[in-house]
Amino acid sequence: MQSLEFEVVRPVCGGIDVHKKSLVAAVCVTDPVTLEAKYSVKVFNSTNSDTAALRDWLLAQGCRDVCMESTGKYWIPVFNILEPHLNVCLTHPKYVKAIKGKKTDKRDAKWIANLFRFDIVKASFIPPADIRALRELSRYRLKLSYMRSAEKNRYQNSMTISRIRLDCVFTDPFGRSASRIMDYLLSDKPFDEKECLSLVHGGVKASDEKILGSIRGCEILSEQRFKLSHTKAHMDFISRSISELELELFRRSRPFDAQIKRIATVTGITELSALFILSEIGADMSVFESGKHLCSWAGLTPANNESASKKKSTRCSKAGQYLKPLLIQCALAAVKSRKEPYFAIKYQRLAKRRGRKKAVIAIARMMLTCIYHMLTEEKDFCPNDYEAVIQPPKQKAVVLNLDNTLQFLREQGADPETIKLIQQQCAAQTA
Questions:
Q1: Torsion of CA 362, 365, 366, 371, to 10 degrees
Q2: Is residue 124, in this structure, part of any structural domain at all?
Q3: Do 379 and 280 belong to one domain?
Q4: Which end of the chain is more exposed for a tag (fewer CB within 10 A), N or C?
């Protein structure tokens, strides 16, 4: 039985076990002759001064390559301090998980360093600092939009309890007309139907009687009045915060205007969505081996779950927590576009065979693949099969006769005796 041998790629490297209050670092030095490893382990606090001391200690040990696991958010300040001076490899905890039994913090640090010296640790994708800043703000904007949606739900619940059914009359219960009516109802003014109808925009399709019928008999209790007013104020505050945040995002993304505008040429992707996509994948596509690798990283490909030559599941992986939902929303917008029906045509073809859900994910994967090639080749959106999909070649009209029918039956694998019988019957009729 042959022994499994690994090549030492990094003779001197380090491993850091990151915790909330402590940092356990281990430096592994490999003897060039015997290939035996010697370890130096030291414990530091997670304060800024001690993290700087950790950096200096690693440099003093002659260590230039360090591996650390991504533990919550605790790795970020350590990474930011070490990045300018060391080659830092950040990896998922599942790739450096130690064997259970004799597990300690110092042994975990040694284990990480030992795996790293053989280069069997899979590094996570960490974009440059300017892209990381965009990512931080774009994800914060997403969280604010979730908060606003939650407040909208609370607002609508209070409206339902108060017997206000503007949502049955107006397409958007938070539109201009509905908001004006709600402000009027929450005010101390006595209710006047004419004054209430004067607040409605002229383009509203609902009749005056339907609008009045949705608010007649409403009863806004004191607690619901308080909740409605404060929820509305909070929604307005969040909306202003989102607007300010978007301005800051566009200001910081000026160096990437060319890439953002190029991504925005894809059907279904706005400039704001393009900015969010760029903040997740970055502008340099050389970090990904191929478009398939990028799609796998984004969680748009089926996960590998196979045992005994049997696939247990073909569901997509859980990767791409932020990028995948965004691309799916863009895909839904793309398949509804009438001006650019490229993705809509492909979606209809896929939906007939695979169903709507899988078809949408497939369109999202197509869009991300297009973005990969666009950023790599510095070209706008123009797929190779665009003309063939939009304007498919016209099929020649086939004249229906006996010979064509018999040929079709042969191609479909019909019984030769049946074909012979049909041929004899047709010959008898024509005789």
A1: 170
A2: no
A3: yes
A4: N
